[in-house]
Amino acid sequence: MTFGYKAITPIKLLNGVIAYRDKKISFKSLRVYLASFELVAIREAAKRTSKLKNKKERELVCFKRSELLRLTQGLTSRSLGKAIKELKNAELMQFSEKNISFNNFPIEGVGEFISKHLGGRKGSRGIPIPRKLIKLLASTNKPTLFITLIAYFLRGLSVKRATGEVNPKGTVKASWIAKAFGISLRSAKSSRAELIALDIISKDETSYQRKLNRTGSYFIINTKWGRTTRKLEFAPPYTENRTEFAPPIKRLKTTKVIKNHKTKKSENSGLKKKKIKPPNIYKFTLDELKKRDSNEKLYWEAVRLGYFKHSEANVLNWLSATVRASKFENTIPIFMGIIKKKLWQNITLDEEDRARTALNKAREFNPMIFKKVA
Questions:
Q1: Partners of residue 201 on adjacent β-strands
Q2: Cα–Cα distance between 32 and 84 in angstroms, integer?
């Protein structure tokens, strides 16, 4: 599996979702539950790498709560401790520094759900979920988006037994998602539209209405999601222009024909400097957003207009929003939507890392960039 997967059984996935549906755990606890699978996947990948390099395996493994805080993005240490306690009381997971163990047996309601809604799919057979999407689920604050994406995993992801390849294709109805998981039909359709906009699932444009009414729309899950994001590119720093004009030719004798060298009022006595307008937060171009200098000026104008206060965290949020919006064709409306509504939770870890790298690179040339008003 080239792009990094974590095999999670339907029983384990549905244990968390059904416990949240039945109000045994909070949504924060559900996010921590998914983030814990990512921690285990990190250790498993490290173990496989050491085997390939013929290195000795480390016996001691340490699971830190700070890793869960980083993956969940927004939870406090207090809320994280409460979530871990909820998961333990619901008999879903045991968390300690030495080990993370999950309940392999279905809790109340999960066995009935599998037999009724999964159409013969075994609850013990692992689903290869891309780790980037696990991180997305752990960081989102939208319950319906979380549940809808889990439904697409259950109906679309599988491993071909003959070749071992991941099959990301399937078919599902929004009404099935709403009925099976207890959410509204409107929320299911809205979440599906958001997943299509994020390029996580494909849009079915070929099926007839009769087929859509019978089994729902076809979809393909983008298993490479999060790895084809375009990088934020700042323009290279301006270099000082050292070119000098040639000095005027000295003439020892003046001309006898014209003695009056005064220019007329109608004549231009010199070159006019072209005024360069600063970028406007209400009206700016895509090039101005991508260039380093104009991007910084837009940031300070947003601070001046009260969109947010200046801080290192908001600088990183601003650049991360630039990275995220650059993935879409209508970059500027999406960017302004994130800034105005402060939708920082929609930014992925990969996008934040790209923004941080771009900022550090820019500060190599100008240490004061995004630190003081230009």
A1: 221
A2: 8
Question: CA separation (Å) from 36 to 72, 83, 195, 226?
Answer: 10, 12, 23, 20
SS3 for 25-53, per residue?
CCHHHHHHHHHHHHHHHHHHHHHHHHHHC
142, with CB counted inside 10 A (0-12, 13-18, 19+), is middle
- The enclosing H or E element of 247 equals none
* C-alpha triplet 131, 106, 142: angle, nearest 5°: 45
pLDDT of residue 1: 39
172 pairs with which residues across the strands?
A: 217
8 Å CB contact between 343 and 337 = yes
Read off the pLDDT band of 75 (50, 70, 90): confident
Tens digit of each residue's pLDDT (9 = 90 or more) over 214-252? 888 899 999 888 754 444 444 444 444 444 445 555 555
To the question of pTM greater than 0.85 for the whole model, the response is: no
The residue among 303, 312, 325 whose CA lies nearest residue 359 is 312
Using the predicted structure, report yes or no on whether residue 310 has a pLDDT greater than 70: yes
